[in-house]
Design brief:
There is one protein chain. The chain has a domain at 198-302: Serine Threonine Protein Phosphatase 5, Tetratricopeptide repeat (Alpha Horseshoe), CATH 1.25.40. 74% of the residues lie in helices and 1% in strands. The chain is built from 25 helices and 2 strands. The chain has 420 residues and is an all-alpha fold. The chain has helices at residues 3-12, 16-29, 32-44, 48-61, 66-78, 82-89, 99-112, 116-129, 134-146, 150-162, 173-183, 187-194, 204-216, 220-233, 240-250, 254-267, 272-284, 288-301, 306-318, 322-330, 340-352, 356-370, 374-386, 390-403, 408-418; strands spanning 167-168, 171-172. The chain is elongated. Strands 1-2 form a two-stranded antiparallel sheet.
């Protein structure tokens, strides 16, 4: 037996000490073909470091054998040594029969580093050298797909499908094309391709895209069907719950929508959008305690989400919880950049708490952006009149009646105040 064969036999017998001895002897005594075979066997068995040692010894002896470089690169990639793999691949020259393969591997490595421009350059170079090779075109389409350049990906996938390529590297090109069309908002084309895929063959991502596409096309029952199929296959797919809930809402089933949002929060308790959706639908169902609960929880999860803050403040004001509203918004006042609605809410709350100074100050802040909002102006006018600020009341009344000239009550108020 050769030393290489003895080394493999020692591995089978789990005799690692004898294996190391036989490997050392093989590196010195065995012929190159035997060593090459040994390296392949060791790599397949997971002994990549020893395989790498053999390949590097062979490369020193045969520096023009680029095939060996590709094996070394494969091992380095498996070991997450990207820089080492790229260094080896860069040694393969354009006149080598392995050059295109090297370009493809380099492109993949650069893509994993999010260097999409460099990856694209490598693939375009490969395409020039082999313009009719489907695998290169496919790799380029996949790069564009990963980089969100769906229009570019669509052109390539279409051409490949026209050439009869429906699946490459276990990727369904019809599926890819449908998803790309969905991403660019061409939902009619998207569903045309996605409907060609049997539901049983759909991945979770494609089930989601199909459900989303049906939702955009206002086919709510089909959207619900796809999202429920996705939920049944992967109930931890967190983003499905927002759109399944929306589909139920559009299909006039608010109770099921609320149940869906609640189920989604069980999967992703930090999703503020789900708290907002649950609060909105609870409010529509008249479940205000539940609405407040979800908004307060959403505020705990993300205190900087101003949509949650605004809706919660609005509810406090409507419910007459003026002290609570003031306390709640006090932590946001230091930023001095509240949305106008919150200054308005504060003004109303302070007014009901008989704090004229703070109420007036917040009305003024809100007026900077809401001076063309009739509802705000009317509220501010009534506040000023009740507090005896006649000149300011008249000024705002003039502004208001220009916006709402048919409000007879306010027109009469202006005439009455000006006649005094």
């Amino acid at each position: 037996m050769s030393n290489s064969e003895k080394a493999l036999e020692a591995l089978q017998n789990n005799d690692l000490e004898k294996y190391q001895t036989d490997l050392k002897n093989a590196l010195v005594q065995d012929d190159d073909d035997m060593l090459f075979s040994l390296a392949e066997e060791l790599y397949s068995l997971g002994f990549s470091d020893d395989a790498l040692k053999i390949y590097r010894q062979l490369l020193k002896k045969y520096p023009d054998e680029d095939e060996i470089r590709t094996y070394i690169a494969d091992i380095l990639i498996a070991k997450d040594d990207t820089d080492g793999a790229l260094a080896v691949l860069n040694e393969i020259k354009p006149d080598s029969s392995y050059y295109i393969n090297a370009l493809m591997v380099e492109a993949d490595l650069y893509q994993t580093q999010d260097l999409f421009v460099v990856s694209e350059h490598k693939l375009l170079e490969a395409e020039k050298l082999a313009p009719d090779e489907p695998i290169i075109k496919f790799a380029l389409a996949e790069l564009y797909y990963s980089d969100g350049k769906y229009e570019s990906a669509i052109k390539i996938y279409l051409n490949l499908i026209k050439q009869g390529e429906l699946s490459i590297s276990n990727v369904n090109l019809v599926e890819r094309l449908g998803v790309c069309y969905a991403h660019v908002g061409n939902f009619e084309n998207a569903i045309g391709y996605l409907e060609q895929i049997k539901p049983i063959d759909m991945t979770p991502d494609v089930l989601f895209e199909t459900g989303f596409t049906y939702l955009q096309l206002e086919n709510y029952k089909k959207a619900i069907e796809m999202f429920e199929m996705l939920r049944d296959s992967d109930d931890q797919y967190a983003s499905l719950y927002i759109y399944l809930g929306e589909a139920f809402e559009k299909d006039d089933n608010p109770e099921e929508a609320l149940r869906t949002y609640q189920e989604g929060l069980g999967v992703d308790e930090y999703n503020v959008t789900l708290y907002l959706k649950a609060a909105d639908i609870a409010a529509k169902l008249g479940k205000m305690d539940l609405t407040i609960k979800y908004l307060e929880k959403g505020n705990e999860v993300n205190p900087d989400n101003m949509e949650v803050v605004t809706k919660l403040s609005e509810i406090y004001v409507k419910d007459g919880k003026f002290e609570k509203d003031v306390d709640f918004l006090s932590s946001y006042l230091s930023d001095n950049n509240l949305v106008p609605q919150l200054y308005w809410d504060l003004a109303i709350s302070y007014d009901h708490l008989d704090d004229f100074k703070q109420a007036n100050e917040n009305y003024k802040k809100a007026a900077v952006d809401l001076n063309d909002n009739p509802d705000f102006l009317k509220n501010y006018i009534l506040f000023l009149r009740e507090n005896g600020e006649i000149k300011e009341t008249i000024d705002l009344l003039k502004q208001y009646v220009k916006l709402v000239p048919d409000d007879e009550e306010m027109v009469y108020m202006l005439e009455d105040l000006e006649s005094r």
